[in-house]
Amino acid sequence: MSRRRYIYEEEENTSRWLVSYADFITLLFAFFVVMYSISSVNIGKYRVLSDSVSLAFLPKEYNKETEVPTAVTTERVPFSIGIDGRSSYQAMAETAAKVENRMKKLINQGQIAIRGNEKWLEIELRSNILFASGSAELAPESDEILEQLSQILQDSNNPLYVSGYTDNVPISTAKYSSNWELSAARAASVVKLFSETGVNPERMGAIGFGEFRPIVDNSTAENRIKNRRVVIRVLAGSDMFTSRTPFADKAVKASIPEKAAQSLQVKSLQPGEPARVFQ
């Protein structure tokens, strides 16, 4: 008599899909965490990292005091990394800290204000601590203030521009027939003193804005005092007003690929024809 064989079939596990589903959810969660971290980049730290990497990959034979790296346009001349290799953010922050330390009393009195970021530093001075009303001659008490600023600013080679501003009260004297002339003369007086006290004149410029760039409305005497000011701007980027750089003894030329340069042609304009740049 033959024995009947019993085959025991193992029951199918219907919950195995949960393992794949859990893996999928985990990967999806990791994906969104990465996306969130990318969207929350700290711009300041990113720029510092970018400048540091750029400095690290400069040619080893590069002399940062006399040469400009090859194949670098004027927009990336090493203003951004500073004369001593610091990032622009560090350079601007350190200069601002020096000014704040030396001018603390005037800052607390509201006579001087400091603003800026990794691209520029702005030092604003009220005109009444530098000049008499309607005059562009520096007052004797202003010499000490500007000489202290000069000592700080002459440590770098970054472009520096001094701008003069006035209120909207018309002026017409034997020396200055308009606020344009007065504001430009005041800016020039500050630049001249900086030059005499050690700041390289090749990196400086004087600009007069007259009454046309107020920071507040000129409706009150207090507001007009605020608008009468001199602003010193130190740029961390390239100098837009010149093809020369304080970091080099020769003019800087933008690196343009040969094929691209050949395709650029300047066409003369016919009378009445609209202006165009390159075609």
Describe the fold and architecture.
This protein is of the alpha+beta class. The chain is built from 8 helices and 5 strands. It has helices at 17-39, 43-56, 88-102, 104-108, 142-153, 179-196, 221-227, 258-263; strands at residues 112-116, 120-126, 160-165, 204-210, 229-235. Strands 1-2-5-3-4 form a 5-stranded mixed sheet. The chain is elongated.
Keywords:
alpha+beta; 60s Ribosomal Protein L30, Chain: A; 8 helices; 11% strand; single chain; 279 residues
Gross geometry: elongated
CATH architecture of the domain at 92-235: 2-Layer Sandwich
CATH topology (fold) name of the domain at 92-235: 60s Ribosomal Protein L30, Chain: A
- Helix percent reads 25-40%
Helix and strand pattern: HHHHEEHEHEHEH
Return residue spans where pLDDT drops below 50 for at least 5 consecutive residues: 60-85, 245-279
Oligomer: single chain
Query: What is the C-level CATH assignment of the domain at 92-235?
Result: Alpha Beta
Compose a concise summary of this entry.
The chain is of the alpha+beta class and 279 residues long.
Write the layout of secondary structure elements.
Layout: H1 17-39, H2 43-56, H3 88-102, H4 104-108, E1 112-116, E2 120-126, H5 142-153, E3 160-165, H6 179-196, E4 204-210, H7 221-227, E5 229-235, H8 258-263
Parallel strand pairs: 3-4
Antiparallel strand pairs: 1-2, 2-5, 3-5
Helix pairs in contact: 3-5
